[in-house]
């Protein structure tokens, strides 16, 4: 099954893009989950959908070829991120209200653009659920740049990012530029989301950012381990999901997320068994 | 006298509906150990946040190490244990080691002269609060008091010049509270760290602190703790704004 991927150019691009996304989505996802902001990914992915639909509309009506829908998706996602940061400032005590506002705006715009472009077509379908055959060389290069940027960002700002996620007040006192780092972080999130949509689709981006992290948190002993295990889970899900998706002709968004959910289920089961065996052993030792 | 580490001049502060601080003036000098007391809602936490630069100054000025707080770059010189230090998200996947390491700001003189590795600093700080054995434990698995001690370790790991603690002993058992006050005295006397301690435990701190600051919207007393101790209950309640006999201890 893997052979098919590595032997056809387009599929190979998809596979590499999948591996990159499997790295950066859980990487940023870890910070998002521990900050209890899992919904941000959902909000932004729907804004990205509006951008993609806008790009498709422009392509169709004006045969505008300089910017692909992928580009307009990225642009919308970043603008959405900036709006969220702003709203969070305005509604300090109800920061989560930014998410439904931006999410509904994204869906509203998407409906308008899709209707103007004469309805749902295969492109929209693949943006919603992901696709195995959608990544061009140029897109792969862009995803590679995004990944490089995101990894560099986390490596260089690991300590402030960790401190801000754990205890914002203490981080501020120790001189960390909270506003700047929050801003950069949400822009990075927007980039990761627009890159991930190529593989898993709008509806399931947030799953790829949170499911591997949820699994990882059950077994990791430290924050660093949480990041590392969530990336491993993310990559396993992408590899299995893409190959089975290709083989059974199912959009990979579905297969990747189901694989992620199975990994979570197995891990919980494993922890449960470990726990019971531990109690039994203690009982035996006590007897 | 040398320049004060912190100087607060004519500071007033209000939240939406109410004035919380009115015309506050005081200095904190290098090497002192200041006890900040006052009833609930008297503005202690607000005053501290103004001193740390995390709450915006509305009126008056605060200077830290001679610089206006708005322009002051901390870089580890001031540290803080907040009143709700253990209000972090429950189940946050971080070890005690990782939490304490947050307190280490690079290019800063380390706690132990000569020995510089982060690991040694962390172990040393945890030893001070008797939490060394918990190095690799998950922070969420500790009891409230143990967590509080880890946050104290995080605050001292970088050897700050000024350490501000907002009710740090809430939830710490009495044996460890005594030990903790001794630790603060040691930090103050041996390492020369200037301390500001917010507490309701007036009875026990008067033996440790060099200055006592009574706050209730405005400053009602600032000076030697013995001066405060020698007052009658009646005089004190007048300063305090209400009766405080519930908090004074018999020694
Ligand atoms: N963010 C805020 N917004 C509005 N009002 C606030 C805010 N923080 C504090 N207050 C109000 O300001 C007053 C002083 O609060 P502050 O937290 O400074 O008191 P405190 O002396 O630290 O009290 P405690 O001993 O209970 O910790 C209180 O009446 C409180 O209701
Ligand atoms: Mg307080």
TrEMBL record, chain A:
GO terms for cellular component: ATP-binding cassette (ABC) transporter complex. It comes from the Bacteria. Its main location: membrane. The chain crosses the membrane at residues 15-34, 64-85, 97-120, 140-158, 227-248, 254-271. This is Zinc transport system permease protein. One of its GO terms (biological process) is response to zinc ion. The keyword Membrane applies.
Automatic annotation (TrEMBL), chain B:
Gene3D superfamilies: P-loop containing nucleotide triphosphate hydrolases. InterPro entries: AAA+_ATPase, ABC_transporter-like_ATP-bd, ABC_transporter-like_CS, Metal_Ion_Import_ABC, P-loop_NTPase. Pfam families: ABC_tran. The keyword Lipoprotein does not apply. Keywords: ATP-binding, Nucleotide-binding, Transport. GO terms for molecular function: ATP binding; ATP hydrolysis activity. Residues 6-241 form the ABC transporter domain. PANTHER family: METAL TRANSPORT SYSTEM ATP-BINDING PROTEIN TM_0124-RELATED. Belongs to the ABC transporter superfamily. This is Zinc transport system ATP-binding protein.
